[in-house]
Amino acid sequence: MAIKTDEQAEEVIRLQGIGKSYYIGDQEVPVLTHIDLSITKGEFVSIMGPSGAGKSTLMNILGCLDRPTKGSYKLDGKEVANLTDKELAYTRNKKIGFVFQSFNLLPRLSALDNVILPMIYGNVFKKERKERAVKMLESVGLGDRIDHMPAEMSGGQRQRVAIARALVNDPAIIMADEPTGNLDSHSTREVMEIFADLYKMGKTVILVTHETDVANYANRHVVLSDGHISKDFKGRLL
Questions:
Q1: Structure confidence by residue, pLDDT tens digits, 154-165
Q2: β-strand 27-40 against 173-177: which pairing, if any?
Q3: pLDDT for the residue 5
Q4: Torsion sign (Cα): 75, 77, 78, 80
Q5: Is the pLDDT of residue 7 over 80?
Q6: N or C, which end of the chain has less CB nearby within 10 Å?
């Protein structure tokens, strides 16, 4: 079987001239300025930079959670600006799995029900929801915690529930915003090994982090500075 070169790899994300500004009264406050970025299928990309560099804003745009002020964003060749709010919601549910620093689990739902939730919005049949959710929780090592509430689990376990929830609709792209920010070193390694395995399975993984050890799980690094890309390279961080 032929191996694709970088030139032949399938492009899933292309940003051209992306800018994002907010307004305080009549004053424009730019957060991102002229971002050009291409990500191909199966890459593991870290997005790094100091606080205020625009990392989370860029992730929100990539994840179709926010719209840019200017520029072009094509996801799988389709211009995101042309999508309706309903189409954006469908895209988020089907194509992208999100993992956040704060887990974003619903505290009154069990691990199982938290993982089932995206399938309700995805119109998955009720019987299939539970089967898929159980398998996904087992795949992240939580088969014995399916009925536990978030408050009954450690931070690492809650993050693994969040990863299971992100994966349950089998998205092609996983986006993680500081997923280890609230975890100890042992839990960090466990969670990052899951992301590494997803990359090996062919998923596209995009990770926002300020931790070098975490970023080094990725094979490409995009560094933001004052709202623009200052570095974009492959290899390990020193």
A1: 999 999 999 999
A2: unpaired
A3: 44
A4: positive
A5: no
A6: N
List the chain domain ranges.
Answer: 41-60+85-234
CB-based burial, 170-184: b 16+ in 10 Å, e otherwise = ebebbbbbbbbbbbe
Considering the segment(s) 41-60+85-234 as one domain, its CATH architecture is: 3-Layer(aba) Sandwich (3.40)
**Among 118, 110, 116, 119, CA closest to 146:** 110
Helix (H, G, I), strand (E, B) or coil at 109: coil
Closest by CA position to 135, among listed 176, 100, 167:
167
The label of the residue with tokens 């998205």 reads: 171
Q: Over the stretch 56-115, which tens digit does the pLDDT of each residue have?
A: 999 999 999 999 999 999 999 999 989 998 898 888 888 999 999 888 999 999 999 999
Q: How many Cα atoms occupy the beta-carbon half-sphere of 181 within 13 Å?
A: 13
Q: What pLDDT is stored for residue 110 in this prediction?
A: 97
- Extract the tokens encoding 116: 């089932």
